[in-house]
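Feature request, filed as a ticket because there's no other form

It would be nice if the structure record came with a short human-readable summary line next to the tokens. Right now we just get the raw output. Example of a typical job, pasted below so the devs can see what we mean:
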Amino acid sequence: MPDLQRIADELAIRAVGAAYADACNRLCPEDVVASFAPDGTMGRAGGPVVPAEKLLKNYRNVLGSCAFLFQTLHSAVIVIDGDRAKARWWFAEILRRQGEDDWRMNLGLYDDEMVRLDGGWRFASRRFTLRKSLSLGPQGDGEPPPAYVELLAG
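Raw output as currently delivered:
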């Protein structure tokens, strides 16, 4: 019989990752920061680490610079060790910065250390590695939905 606690923990960790991406896509820095432990940190691989007390300011700057962001996470690899865990998530995102016409596609990964708190699992540290950034060029602000969407709706 599988270890039901391990399965529950893995699902809870996946939910934190999903909540983070959802908050990023909604451009909501307060909800992004809620996925971190009170002393959680964020950083880029090989770059500076943002300490807990500056996370909200950091995400307000990052998400505030976006006119549009759509991030998708790919299935995580998770290793649980008691009340700590490590997770690696590959992601793809499309974004457009405020005041810019250029749309970008970013591909990369998050290396996370997770911690179980009284309120559930949270990011203790999150490290971002950008593997590829591609310009998609100007795309406008949106296109009408494809004809098949109208077929599904009507």
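Something like this underneath would help us a lot:
Residues 105 and 134 are 5 Å apart (CA to CA).
The first strand starts at residue 36 and ends at 44.
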